[in-house]
Amino acid sequence: MDTLIRTLLLEWKDRKLPDVTKRDFSIELSENNKVNNAIVITGFRRVGKTYIVLEAVNKLLSKYSREEVIYLNFEDERIINPDTNLLTDLIPEAEAVFGKKPKFLFLDELQLIPNWSKWVRRVLDSEDIKLVITGSSSKMGSSELPTELRGRAEETKIVPLNLDEFMRFKGQEKIRLPFLLNEYLIYGGLPAVVLSPEEKKLELLQSYYRTVVQREVIDRYKIKNENVLKTLLTLLINSNYITISKLFNSLKSLGLAVGKTTIDKYINNIKSSYFMEELNIFNYKIINQLMYPRKNYFVDTGFISALSTKFSKNMGRLFENMVYQKLKTGNENIFYWKDERDREVDFVILEGGKVRSLYQACYDISDEDTFDREVKSLLRAQKVFGCDDLNLLTVEIPKNYKEIKGIKIFSVYQDG
Question: Do residues 26 and 49 touch, judged by C-beta distance below 8 A?
């Protein structure tokens, strides 16, 4: 194994780093931190974690040498059946090859190596080395972080390009062009997809999807009934709302006998790959949340377009998914609301146990009936919760729209 490590280290010394388009995420590193914690970069596969890491590496290389700043990717196909010795030998081998220990170690997809967390803890306790590690599985996230790293890791979660970043990748900066917004909604914000020609985008998204299903769900959780999992994913992608009972009945009608407990387990497995998230209805009686359908949102709108079995693009759903991802950043307590007359508010933001903000996401409010429906739902929820922060998000505000007192209307062209 030490021969492979030596090869990887020597290749690193001569490796040409790619030019990187700047994103809104950055990694700030310093040798002088009082507490030596690991920086953990998590997120969905192909979301751009590696390029954000390489941007930080490039920045450090203006001050330090390649012997002091080392980057390794553990998805290298030459690393077959990796064992703990790969990590155990890493620092001694780097010292032997370069004549000194590294000051910074950037380790991509480290979770693929057995006992990686124990090695990280040992290095943090015994070495003066700054560790930056990345992973595509939630097992590296704060909620599933191994016990030995609790309190010793600082997590940054990377998501697909937001609209501002997308425009930057397109060289448009703040200019809002309708055809570019539609491209963003339909094909999403995964960096490589954004930079690909249109005829290749869906093919690339489908390839990413297959990789995630196989590596992050089937292989990781050793799922035997792949057909059930893949059919379940198809049902999820083509549904706005889900319940375990409805999914159970749908699978049963397709001749796939699977228990409700297994369905729930598979959904949690899918969520652990960062592919999908669920939104519960808001109700002060917590028990009632479990009785209502959950809304499902995906890490990137491109997957809805690439994998949906429906012929026409549902721009309303794509827009709502985009708004969810924007609001989710920095808001953990987010729900939806619906009353007995089916008046619905897309997003309810809680703070300190109370409703702080209400948001409607509507792709097109030019139709008067649509506009009235969205407004009436907001006003009804305002009475229920006593919340005065009412927001309606849309693509473009019609010139002849009527102002409604207390409701703020935002256009993505104006407000991003």
Answer: no
